[in-house]
Amino acid sequence: MTEKGVPTSQQASADTRPARLVNIERGLNRRTFLIMAGLSPVIAVAACAEQDTKWKTYTSSIYPYQIDYPSTFSTQTIPTVGDLFGGGVVNGFPTLISIKAEPLNLSLDQYTSEFVASAQRFNNGQDTVTVLASPLDPRTKQVFKVSGNDAYQIGVHAPQGANPAVHGVPYDMTATLITAKGLYWTITLFNESSVTQKYRPIYKHMLDTFQLTR
């Protein structure tokens, strides 16, 4: 499977498996497994539509940022996973937004290509992985930025039965990748597939309010 929207010259080689790719994949698997296994207590009542949502401002204790999030969401910080915002359970799958930052010695394009490669290997290659937006999207000719920084957005769809850890429930993941303050940021929405359109506006609002501090 090829990475849609990412230049071929920048795609990660599945044969070389550089250490940084292994680290990205381990991080992706760790965050996803946490959600799949239902280990996180960050689960609250389901949020309503974005325009009806009441918002609170969250200032991270481990990363230099603040962000608005729905007041119905719970929050939790796990140093090895990041900041977590939970918003309800559908068919046994929690809706969760995670924010993680880490230092990596590579470009944003390389980071995105390697993140895509890692996502494609998850669930034995059954997932559909698509680049939804990029710093200069050739389809829309618009620049995609978060907090003034170039960003990529990756969409992942896991079909029913792809992962037995969630009893075969289909789920979606939307990941926004940026570089800022010398760190590589991954802001990710996980949710059961039937509520993707419900939570995307909330996720977008959170991205719009993401601000770097100190």
Describe this structure in words.
- This protein has helices at 19-36, 108-121, 196-209, and strands at residues 55-59, 65-70, 74-78, 82-90, 93-102, 128-133, 145-146, 149-158, 171-180, 183-192, 211-212.
- It is of the alpha+beta class.
- It has a single domain, classed as Protein Transport Mog1p, Chain A, CATH 3.40.1000.10.
- Strands 3, 4, 5, 6, 7, 8, 9 and 10 form an eight-stranded antiparallel β-sheet that branches. The protein has a three-stranded antiparallel β-sheet with strand order 1-2-11.
- A hairpin with a 2-residue loop joins β4 and β5 (93-102).
- α1 (19-36) packs across α2 (108-121).
- The longest helix has 18 residues, at 19-36.
- It is globular.
- The model is unreliable at 1-15 and 42-47 (pLDDT under 50).
What oligomeric state do the depicted chains represent? single chain
Strand percentage, roughly? Answer: 35-45%
**Over the alpha carbons, how many angstroms does the gyration radius reach?**
16 Å
Distance linking N and C termini: 40 Å
Sheet/helix structural class? alpha+beta
- Element-level helix/strand string: HEEEEEHEEEEEHE
Named CATH architecture: 3-Layer(aba) Sandwich
Q: How many helical stretches?
A: 3
Spans of at least 5 consecutive residues whose pLDDT stays below 50 are 1-15, 42-47
Shape: globular
At the third CATH level, what is the topology name?
A: Protein Transport Mog1p, Chain A
Q: For this structure, what is the CATH class?
A: Alpha Beta
When the domains are counted, the total is: 1
